[in-house]
């Protein structure tokens, strides 16, 4: 399938869309068979995707010319705005996504969706929770403390009510990757599943790159205020791991040091010192992989002036000495 064929297919009026066009404001008869739950006195539809537990991935186009009442999904949902725009209402707050934006909703996010028009093409990618956790978290959490926190926030928290919004600034690469994914999903060719897995993984990496490059442009939002704030705190620690301490960090973010210490531990599962040490180890590993600096110089660069202490912490973290780590990554 070529891009033009995909575009034509996505813009074709489906049977469901014809129903909505012929019956403005009507609710699909399918809603009669969808389970509901009572949340704070409101009836909320619970969208289930039984096939996703077997296939792990399901890709579909949202029906146009209709709205969607309050609902949740039983699995993680990624929405890509292929064309036009789409407005969700979450906790009474309107969130409008435009072409090429991406939103990822965790399982318990209660939201509704306003009516979308003919040019509003919204792609819905349902991922099984095990796929999202195992496939993405195992590959991406090692890259950055901040990356790990963001991904874990959406799939490993007790309350699954977070959502992430990526304004991709019209990234052509993101668009092409979603198009490749949709084309492959519709082809059912040999190794299609492997390619789709790879495309989705690359999409996530590109989204995280966009986030890291535009942290100050609000390219990512989490539903919980304190969770959103902790992102800035962790980001600051990552950038200033050599010089910051709990007191200066607390002053920077207007917290009492004891409260900030508790907040960091509560939201990340790690103490300030553990996050700081983790960043030192990650930077040391980067130097070992990508430079010829002697190990004692690397130790000093990441804030260790006692070589034995550096070796001890490095071995605790990586299970090998710095030399063994360097050798293992340069064996070829």
Can you give me a brief rundown of this structure?
This protein is of the alpha+beta class and 332 residues long. The chain has 14 helices and eleven strands. The longest helix is centred in the middle third of the chain and has 22 residues, at 192-213.
Layout of helices and strands, plus pairs?
Layout lengths: L2 H9 L3 H8 L13 E4 L2 E6 L4 H4 L1 E5 L6 E6 L2 E8 L1 E6 L2 E6 L3 E4 L5 E3 L7 E7 L1 H12 L4 H11 L7 E4 L5 H16 L4 H22 L11 H15 L6 H7 L4 H12 L3 H19 L4 H7 L5 H12 L3 H7 L4
Parallel strand pairs: 2-4
Antiparallel strand pairs: 1-2, 3-10, 4-9, 5-8, 5-10, 6-7, 6-9, 8-11
Helix pairs in contact: 4-5, 5-8, 6-7
Main attributes?
Jelly Rolls, Arc Repressor Mutant, subunit A, single chain, alpha+beta, globular, 14 helices, 18% strand, 2 domains, 5-stranded antiparallel β-sheet, 332 residues
CATH architecture of the largest domain: Sandwich
Largest sheet: 6 strands, mixed
Spatial strand order of the main sheet? 1-2-4-9-6-7
Euclidean distance between termini CA atoms:
39 Å
CATH class of the largest domain: Mainly Beta
Order of helices and strands: HHEEHEEEEEEEEHHEHHHHHHHHH
Helical content band: 40-55%
* Annotated CATH homologous superfamily of the largest domain: Regulatory protein AraC
Keywords: DNA-binding, Transcription, Transcription regulation
Domain HTH araC/xylS-type: 231-328
InterPro entries: Homeodomain-like_sf (IPR009057), HTH-like (IPR037923), HTH_AraC (IPR018060), HTH_AraC-typ_CS (IPR018062), RmlC-like_jellyroll (IPR014710), Tscrpt_reg_AraC-type_HTH (IPR020449)
GO molecular function, one term: DNA-binding transcription factor activity
